Amino acid sequence: MSYEPEQFRIDIPEVTLADLAERLRRTRWPTDPENEDWRYGTSRAYLEPFVQYWLTEYDWRAQEAAMNRFDHFRVVIDGVPVHYLLRRGTGPNPVPLLLTHGWPWTFWDLNQVIEPLADPGAHGGDPADAFDVVVPSLPGFAFSSPLRQTGVGVARTAELWRTLMRDVLGYQRFGAQGSDFGAVVTQRLAEDHPEDIVGVHLSRYKRPAGSATPGASAVRPEDYGPDEAGDFERNAAGLALAASHLAVHTNDPQSLAYGLTDSPAALAAWILERRRSWSDNDGDIEQAFTRDHLITTLMLYWVTDTVGSSLRFYWETAREGARPPHGGEQVVTVPVAVGVMPKDVQAMPRRHAEEDTDLRRWTRFPRGGHFGAAEVPDLMVEDLRAFFRPLRGEVG
């Protein structure tokens, strides 16, 4: 089957921005006593001036221009609209590299790693480490919309990404990196199509049902090694931080979507709480992200009307069904790297990845949280270069 991607420029209609401004002006604020520490959720003491900045100082057109410095494309694959950013590498033999984000991310959370990966010579690196960088938006996120089909979760997305890389872009073999949902999609791609994958770099390794050790999807204290002291407790604490959104997104996301689609302040409250809780910031969210970056994230959900379809990605993934047992064999047979951020929500044991995968690299970063590529792009770029350097000869 042939596919015809169309290049486009991001250009949001002025009427959409005017409507947003009016909604921000008319925000109806709830009372919020004794919540400066966010114990009840997003603090009004932070959110109200944040919304005022969004309304009076934030410049969407400047952010739009920054995005448009890259080449953007849309293509429909099996009825699913897919947006992707493409930056061809500058170097003797660029390796195709697929980067996949998660929620509440957008493709733009990866913007700081794109140029250093594609043109290392211009960013203090070796041109021999160059990549062709492909950054798609997950189905139903931002410009991968409108998503009219149901049933699109992790498994379906892995197949869409294979088609994108092989049939749309013409790469026979490629590398892949993923964080959050992107890590799960990337791992699934490597499980199902190892012949296409040079190697995968994951922000975490999630042990699937049917992996090498019976009942191994559970995490036990004894699974952690001496250099992972405290990670079992950190993982348990992280699960509590994710409990509220997981419950809603996997059970009744449409009910939440009405409020987040109607009120930009509600959208901000829901997403900012996760950004603060899941990143490395000592309680100050703007230690991890600039205010403009946070608003741009919100804007990419708002101006594309995709927060509802992004929430459904959880519902669909939760109902995809369990994979068949692997019979004691490795789950991932291609080379694997895992980058562990000290303030990420989950802290999975190295032992699981060693038993289930061809683990080549396990990096414990000195800083960073759940949004690694946005929080510590320099460390992410360095780790990706190092992992893929010995694999370059296998691209073919």
Describe the SSE topology.
Elements: E1 6-8, H1 14-25, H2 44-56, H3 60-67, E2 71-77, E3 80-87, E4 95-100, H4 111-118, E5 131-136, H5 154-168, E6 174-178, H6 181-192, E7 197-202, H7 231-251, H8 253-262, H9 264-278, H10 291-302, H11 307-318, E8 332-340, H12 350-356, E9 357-364, H13 372-375, H14 377-388
Parallel strand pairs: 4-5, 4-6, 6-7, 7-8, 8-9
Antiparallel strand pairs: 1-2, 2-3, 3-5
Helix pairs in contact: 4-14, 5-6, 7-11, 8-9, 8-11, 9-10
**Unreliably modeled segments:** 212-216
Query: What is the overall silhouette?
Result: globular
Overall radius of gyration: 20 Å
Q: Span between N and C termini?
A: 23 Å
Q: What's the pLDDT, averaged over the residues? A: 95
Looking across the biggest beta sheet, what order are the strands in? Answer: 1-2-3-5-4-6-7-8-9
List keywords for this structure.
globular; 14 helices; 41% helix; single chain; alpha/beta; nine-stranded mixed β-sheet
Short description:
The chain is of the alpha/beta class and 396 residues long. 41% of the residues lie in helices and 15% in strands. A nine-stranded mixed beta sheet has the order 1-2-3-5-4-6-7-8-9, sandwiched between helices.
Characterization of this structure:
- The protein has 14 helices and nine strands.
- About 40% of the residues lie in helices and about 15% in strands.
- The longest helix has 21 residues, at about 230-250.
- A nine-stranded mixed beta sheet has the order 1-2-3-5-4-6-7-8-9, with helices on both faces.
- It is globular and about 55 Å long.
- The chain is an alpha/beta fold and about 400 residues long.
- Helix 8 (about 255-260) crosses helix 9 (about 265-280).
